[in-house]
Amino acid sequence: MRTTVGSDNITIDVHLTTQDPAIDRAEIRNGLLSSPRVLPTKYLYDDRGSELFEQICELPEYYQTRTEFQILVTCADKIIARSDADELVELGSGAATKTRVLLDAMDRAGQLNFYVPFDVSEGIVRRVSQELVEEYAALKVHGVVGDFLSHLEHIPDGGKRLVVFLGGTIGNLDDVAGAAFLSSVNKAMELGDHFLLSVQFVTEVNRLEAAYNDSKGVTAKFNKNMISVMQEMVRADFSPDAFDHVARFNHVESRIEIFLRSNKRQAVIFQDLDLVLSLENGEEIRTEISTKYDRKRAEQLLADANFELVEWYVDSDELLGLALAKKL
Questions:
Q1: Does residue 63 have a pLDDT over 70?
Q2: Number of domains the chain is built from
Q3: Can you give the residue range of the structural domain that contains 252?
Q4: Distance between CA atoms of 66 and 19, rounded to whole angstroms?
Q5: Would you call 140 helix, strand, or coil by DSSP?
Q6: Selection from 20, 33, 325, 64 nearest residue 201 by Cα
């Protein structure tokens, strides 16, 4: 672990450097050789990927961020009152744009003491930490740079907490990984803590697919950023021009699936993996999934992870919901 103190109110812990690179290489290699071929979604989110995702959230087709923001604006005071938390822990914090709505509500209630942004991008965690201590004079920030699938035990000790997982990010995990993740979140919490989970609901397929195939091509750039990450991490000779961005709805699994599709017959060399990957024209590598839920399925996820549902907060069109739960 590497720890730095930016000021009296900022501490940053970096845990990604403690993971054996061989583990990452094995994960990437196994994914590429699996059927279907996959690359771990977390490798979309280096500093550049995080910046591109911020841009995606502003796109007209990407209704999810606007909808979630509006629910928070409407319900933040209720959420803070029900949770009675004086500390906020955000998993996958990103730029913390929507988080400020919750921080404002905590501030109004006189309960704003401590914020823990947890994200894979060190640049984002440092930027957000500095921004927030300037915006909220009494706030202390303890940032954690890590993978929330691997490093939850490094969340610093604290008081009565609201742990939030926004953006519908739970949908990026398959059923097995999602269940394991929620159970690990529960174990990292104390009795009396609350958990706020964002889920995206099933809606019209055209609307869903448009959100991941924007007219400006920002999502395509975000997806192809995975190629840049692979070039750096495992010395892959991927060429962005040799792949197309593809996103489509899988009706059976009720999820959007995103791929890099080879637009020619090619062999991609991964020097650090000792691997030459032969791809046919049209062959795909899956880089992300985004599962869409109904309430019953989401409630079962929480129950299986030993959470008790407290309240649902949903927009009028039922495009997205925030489930407030407490640890049992």
A1: yes
A2: 2
A3: 18-54+211-291
A4: 35
A5: strand
A6: 64
- Name the pairing type of β-strands 194-200 and 114-119: unpaired
Q: pLDDT tens digits, residue range 215-259? A: 999 999 999 999 999 999 999 998 999 999 999 999 999 999 999
**Residues 269, 124 share a domain:** no
Q: How far apart are CA 92 and CA 173, in angstroms?
A: 13
Beta strands in the chain (DSSP E): 2-7, 10-14, 87-91, 114-119, 140-145, 161-165, 194-200, 243-250, 255-262, 266-270, 275-279, 284-291, 307-314, 320-327
Residue 3 in domain: no
- Percent composition of the chain: helix, strand, coil (DSSP 3-state, to 5): 40, 30, 30
Q: Helix (H) and strand (E) counts for the chain?
A: 9, 14
Q: How many CB atoms lie within 10 A of CB 9?
A: 19
3-state secondary structure 154-218: HCCCCCCEEEEECCCHHHHCCHHHHHHHHHHHHHHCCCCCEEEEEEEECCCHHHHHHHCCCCCCH
Closest CA to 147 of 36, 231, 304, 24: 24
- The answer on pLDDT for 17 being more than 80 is no
Structure tokens given for 100: 């400020």
CATH of the domain at 173: 3.40.50.150
User: Is residue 101 helix, strand or coil?
Assistant: helix
Closest by alpha carbon to 139, among 89, 163, 103, 105? 103
Cut 0.85: pTM above it: yes
Residues 198 and 215 in one domain: no
Terminal-residue alpha carbon distance, the chain: 31
Read off the amino acid at residue 295: R
CA–CA dist 327, 258 (Å, integer):
33
